[in-house]
UniProtKB/TrEMBL annotation:
It comes from the Eukaryota. Pfam families: HET (PF06985), Het-6_barrel (PF26639). Residues 45-231 form the Heterokaryon incompatibility domain. This is Heterokaryon incompatibility protein-domain-containing protein.
Amino acid sequence: MDIYHRSPSLQSGSIRLLKVEPASTQHGTVRCNLEVVELATKPAYCALSYTWGSPWPVGKSPAQHSNSPAIIDAKGTPTYNANQQLQAIDSTVNGSKETTRCLINCNDANVWVTQNLFHFLSHCSRTAAARFRGYIWVDALCINQRDLDERSHQITMMADIYREASEVLVWLGVDDVHTSQGIELLRDIACLTPAKRFLLLPESVQSHERWIALGHFFQRSWFNRAWIIQEVHLYFYMGSSLQNLAARLGATKRSSISSSGDNLLHALIRSRLSACQDPRDKVYSQLQLGNADIFPTYNASIQEVFTATAVWILEHSDNLFVLCCVEGEDFQRTPELPSWVPDWSVTESLGLRITGYPQFSAGLGRTRKLEIINEDGRHILRVEGAEIDRVGEVYATKDEIRDDLLLAQTWSLFQDLDLASAEVLWRTIVTNRSSEAGNPRTQYFYPASSKLQESFHHWILWRAGESFKHKNPETKMELLSNITVHSKDDSILPSDTEIRNMLEKCIEDPQYHDKLYSSASLFDVHYTHAMFLRPFKTKQGYFGVGTQCLQHGDSIFIVSGCRVPLLFKSVDASSHYRLVGGSYVHGVMDGQSLENEKLHFQMLSLK
């Protein structure tokens, strides 16, 4: 029997609410019922925010209590032991094991739910608190997930459903040995003044074990869900802990962004690292926050949803910032996606990571020109641009450089640089932006502060020492004999002698290179802000950074109305291009290229 047999379809403005029956025995079946209500009638209910699958990410598992109940009510009374036997199955899809499923009874019909949801429903059935005895909205049961039309309509109501709820209950999963210490540390942090919170280690919260416990707390899967950005509001529940943490910590108020079409794009950027079981939900979960009048439909493919979203953003904004969010073909997961459409299923921190690029104006001196056409069933974006240079020498990625600075392919980036060139290099690597350490509101400055220059010098020594430390004895001796920088006399780079002395000290004192970090940390913080980038030098000698996917010969274009230069790859020597991604090219970011009267602008077709 289907659990929706009493309410096969929902009318406009209607929702289902769940009511869990009190448990008749300690290990009895969880029973619940669904009831249809009109949201406009202001029914009393709580809304649940939780993780459908495991409360822990793949490869992680909680450190369980050995003799303690996993769930305790607000008074400290044990209500449910998570170690009890569950009636459960392991479902397998395409040969891979999925989340454990548990059986409940809803509307007199048996239905399987994930173990995490089962834990919550079991908690409700065994707890006397009023909030668990009333109506609860749980998406997995209150929405008929097999009815795609109902699913689409209910998603448009999600913001209202959470807004109208008397409480939003956040279920993080059963607790473990780290829970109490992590919560205690959060309470202590909440008691600190704003100024003290920004100290590295205030005395009242100095405890290695508690910080580890807090790390485990934030590793729970719930914190990585895309939907939580609109769901989270009030209470957090995690096993024995019931805390209004949002109120205790004083939720940070951010200034609202503009009411233009950029709202949706900024929401998508903020949620890029978040995960969704259905990639289309990366967009749909942000529609309310982005004030976007896109109707969610699960009959459309992922490619269609992402393409329609990019088109909507372009039509509802006056810039081309969405093109800078393209991740490049090496990262793209969605097949048949136009090169100019960001793939929001990608969860890496890609691009320059400068939301809006407000400091840059490479192509702002010209009015944006664009049109979207359909060519043989493909969406083609036409923009106006002019080629200013091409990618010449390509270096190792930023991640590879930091990981092993002494490799020949990474070390080549720092060869033969005079004072001016070395400064251009470090400014390029950090996109010429810096923030003042210790500033509570983290304001970025452009151009970057000269304080980074000295830190860059020590950063080279520190990373060289780190690389040296992991070499075998034979390689170490070879490096000591052959290390050369070829730096100019006035360069800010360390000299051969300075590097060799540092390496010898690393042999004498294995902890020596760690001491260098205090001087190198300022530059390293800025360096690691955006890691999925690759430095390059143009054929005209300019330093730049762009997506890891860039290649020798890629064209660098100034595009009318775009704040940063874009990298294009020619398609079969035709007038068509594929977008590789945005870039920072030192010396053109303030519109200097537009002063060239010979610059030839033309309409370009992006596949």
